Amino acid sequence: MDLKSYIKKYNRIIENFFSISLLNAISQIISFFLVPYLVAVLGFKTYGAYYFIYNIALYLVLFGTYGFRFSVTRQISINRDNKAEVNRIFNAAIGARLLLSTVAAIVAGIAVFLLMDGDDMLMYLFAMGIVFGDIFIPVWLFQGMEQMRYMTIANVVSKIVFALLVFIIIKEEGDYIYVLILNSCGYLAAGALSMAIAFRHYGLSLAIPRWSDIVELLKDGWHIFVSNIGMELYRNSNSFILGVLVSDTAVGIYSSVEKLVKVGQSIINALPMAIFPHASRLFSGKDMRENIAKLRKMLCVSFALLFVVVVLFACSPRLVVWYLPELDYTVAKYLVWLMSPVILFGSLNYISGIVGLVNLGAANLFERNIWIVGIISVLLMLLFCKEYTYYAAAATWSCAEALLFFLCLLSLNRVRKKGGIV
Fold first, then answer.
1. Overall pTM surpassing 0.70 (yes/no)
2. 94 and 209 in contact (C-beta within 8 Å)?
3. pLDDT of 330-357, one tens digit each?
4. Beta carbons within 10 angstroms of residue 34's beta carbon
5. Model pLDDT for residues 88-130, shown as the tens digit of each residue
6. Residue 201 pLDDT > 70
7. 175-201 burial by CB neighbour count: b if 16+ within 10 A, else e?
């Protein structure tokens, strides 16, 4: 196959890869400049307080997203040539997300009102734009259609506006409360633009969904939703536990370096994210031997490339201190070393778990692995965070990702045997 034919055959994957890469790159470039600016203006303690509430908003977004980013993406991908079916799925997903997010926001709001002070409650209310704005950003629609350029357009515009407003408005520590307002405005703007694109380009329209359609989507996404909740136990709960049991300062130090790791992950994960909807169609009805063989090749190539990235990141503590001058070099060095394996195993887990197990019809095995790892991670944090603070959080995160990869490999082997492969 010549280059022209190859590009034509995989043009959607290539386009999605570059669209997701561009979105992630711009998002992380913005974060690259925002994080040190906010840390310098607000200080680690106040930045930690902001990030604590922001984390709660992300938990609510996760709950409202359910498992739709993968389950609905798969349905859209399979039915994308049927406009009526896509519109039915679209409205059912929006309706389900509104229902889930409203319930979650009320329950969390009561908890914040009872357990935290007035400033925290006010920050929580300002963060609600993040939760409800995200409902109208249908990543699953654009990803299922394999046209992520529209998602990129909507998000890039809102993120750039948000960043500019932060630099213009946030000038002193007392301005920390406005960061969440600006975050909310960014999400709401992205939601409005995304809906406009969905209506104009795909001819979709909002309608009250049937209850049976909502229930159907909830059932289909259940295993992925439970997996996502379990994933949060080890990926994002470390900051929450540090905030509850240690201090806002510990959250600020840990989360500022954690952001750098997630920058690398989001850029690297652009390719498997672009491949996911293609794999949904590719694996459908195919021989298990062929599917597992393709997945193994992907994992081997990814491991070799990611290992180089990990080594480079592990050698970068001085760059981290240059990036975050408020951070002590010794602290930066140990945090970078402890978090480096996350880049390797986190990306391999996306490929083996999401692209692999979910698309191979083994989402229940991925769910089980996630919860085993999540529970172990929380237990380790509860045991060691008071004594070792952010070092415990960094080490726990890396150990959790490594353990999950090992469990996913065992699960893939189980799927292989069940498929009749010796």
1. no
2. yes
3. 888 888 888 888 888 888 888 888 777 8
4. 18
5. 999 999 999 999 999 999 999 998 888 877 778 888 999 999 9
6. yes
7. ebbbbbbbbbbbbbbbbebbbebbeee
Per-residue pLDDT of 34-52, as tens digits, reads 888 888 888 888 888 888 8
Axis crossing angle, helix 176-202 with helix 128-135, rounded to the nearest 10: 10
Structure tokens at 42: 């607000």
Question: pLDDT class for 422, splitting at 50, 70, 90?
Answer: very low
Q: Is the pLDDT of residue 318 over 70?
A: yes
Exposed / middle / buried, residue 295 (Cβ in 10 Å: 0-12, 13-18, 19+): buried
Dihedral sign, Cα of residue 318, residue 320, residue 322, residue 327: negative
Q: Which is it for the CA torsion 222, 225, 231, 232, positive or negative? A: negative
Burial annotation 119-147 (CB, 10 A radius, 16+ → b, else e): ebbebbbbbbbbbbbbbbbbbbbbbbbbb
The two tokens of residue 310 are 């990990």
pLDDT given for residue 49 in this prediction:
82
The first and second tokens of residue 194, run together, are: 């995304």
Residue 40 and residue 252: Cα distance in Å, rounded?
Answer: 11
- Report which of residues 388 and 150 the model is more confident about: 388
Which pLDDT score is estimated for 358? 78
